[in-house]
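for the writeup, i need someone to sanity check this before i put it in the appendix. the sequnce is what the collaborator sent (i think, or maybe the updated version? ugh). structure was predicted straight from it, no edits. if anything looks off just tell me and ill rerun, i have time this weekend
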Amino acid sequence: MNSELTRRNFVGATATAALAGSFAAITAARAASTGGAPLKILGISCSPRQGMTTAKAVQTALDAAKSVNPRIVVELIDLGGLSFSGYSPTPPKDDFTAILPKLQDPAVAGLIIGSPSYFRGLSALCKAFIERCAPLREPKMLLDGKPVGVIATGAFRNGGQELVIEQIQVAMLCFGMIPVGGRPPAFQGGTVNSTKDSIDGDELGLTTARNTGLRVADFALRLAK
């Protein structure tokens, strides 16, 4: 009987040790997955209307991105109310001067760019923003290999949002960025419907914005590994 008890104790102890080892391995894996330098996702709202529907849609995507992993940190840059022109060989000192260092930060691991759909195209402010990002291409492609997601807002469900997404994605290919879409029901990115200056009632559109944020964060983590 003593021998049997000894054998049972041994088996029990072995099982406990195995479970403890597995738990330790899982804990170590989780710790490793959350370790490392912060990965910053910048959200750029390219609407001239500060704090309105485009900014809120981009913030929705950023909030989703932040939930993916503790390493993900987010920041919204709302261009509404700022004044700057498009490309110039010698960029003037204007409101964009304070924005450029944020984009040059080595911690930046991805972008989420939002624009309203004006006449089924990206806003003039968004075009100017992209053109003024030219210093990010020379002498080194600072955004090369980093994911970019796009959020577009419009007054109708089919108000040109997908066209805006395509235009921004194509432009960001010139920076070597990797265009990242969302998940069903919007594979290209976030397509949000603004009704009477509100996106709160568009749960479908908000879901596409969240999914885009999740995908950008997920890609940033994969590439960081």
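The chain has two domains: 1-34, 38-224. Confidence is low (pLDDT under 50) at residues 1-33.
thx in advance!!
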